[in-house]
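WARN no homologs supplied; continuing
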Amino acid sequence: MAKSRRSSEFENPSEVVEATAETAAPGDVEFENPADVSNEEEFAASASGDDSELAVSLSAADSGVVQLKTAIESLLVAQAGPHTEGVAFAASDLGGTGNIQGVGYALGTAASGGEPGATSLVVFTAEPTSEDEVKGSIANAAAASDEELDATPVTVVTTGLIEAFAHRFRARPAPCGISVGHFNITAGTIGALARGRSGVRRNRLLLLSNNHVLADVNAGPIGAAIIQPGKFDGGVNPRDRIGSLERFVPVNFAAGSVNFVDCATAWVNTSLVRKEFVHLVNGQQRFFRVNSQTIQAQVGMIVGKSGRTTQLTQGRITAIGVTVNVNFGNGRVGTFRDQFSVVSTTTGANFSQGGDSGSLIWTWNPARNPVGLLFAGGGGVTFANRIDRVKQALDIDLVT
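OK structure emitted
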């Protein structure tokens, strides 16, 4: 496990003063009070990026698979964005390409018809359908020949509409894996603790979760109260305030846009949180640590998470390089690219449910290396951001 830093190295939001040009110096530990920050643009992080490195890693023999995936992604981007109705889609209207909710890379299986271990596609749909129906619905839009479609192994997974998870006990200090949230949302999960990589943020102890958990889907503002437990679980502001919204990556709902992460940080009081993760055994709280060394998601990798709703669960990564449309409510649908999907290793169980948003996903082995940040799901399938993208977008390192 990574060596931990003493809590005394961090200053608390309520105890800091604003550094001035006269008092600030390189390495100075003084910094502005989050409650005084009003310039949201200064702290809104960038979500730019692409998944070209993933495409390059695929062999030339997989070029047809890559091209078909790219075509499906274009369809997803076209059908995302703001909608005039109260919800993005009605299930009864999801015909043709509208039934497709996401697409990613997987490995060939007997069910998909592909060669064992060869790159194939997994297509996530809102309603049950067949491989032939999926291929038929995209044939014209993708401008793919019958030969190309027939040669591409496809596995169809029914998820229903993909919803952004945003929905139990109070703890001081609060461990990772329990209820938290912006004072105006229901509840999500404390994913992990972190610190900034540069400037005054190097001396801030931060709480990592989703934008839609800590920033109320772009609403903010910077400095907004973060409470534990979340409002849905009885949290009240200011009584249960543990920190303030510090930075978030806006979710872009504009037509034709894509996103790579749904993430945010809160600046927290060091005495009110702890880096350990919690899980319950016969009603008793048990704690464990994870590593700070992150690794890449791989198909078949066994992973775990501790979350607000389903607590400690184990799952298997089923697809990487996933592009998926996610419904955030109020007619807002965002396209997310380069995600990965997870399903439970326990038959009939879910790896996550609503309220588990923001949970850190890590490898199910003694190292417990972080892999991703859980943010959405449907139909028993969980979707997560790559953790390296999260760290880069928020300019943070994990404190574990």
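Confidence is low (pLDDT under 50) at residues 15-43, 84-94.
OK
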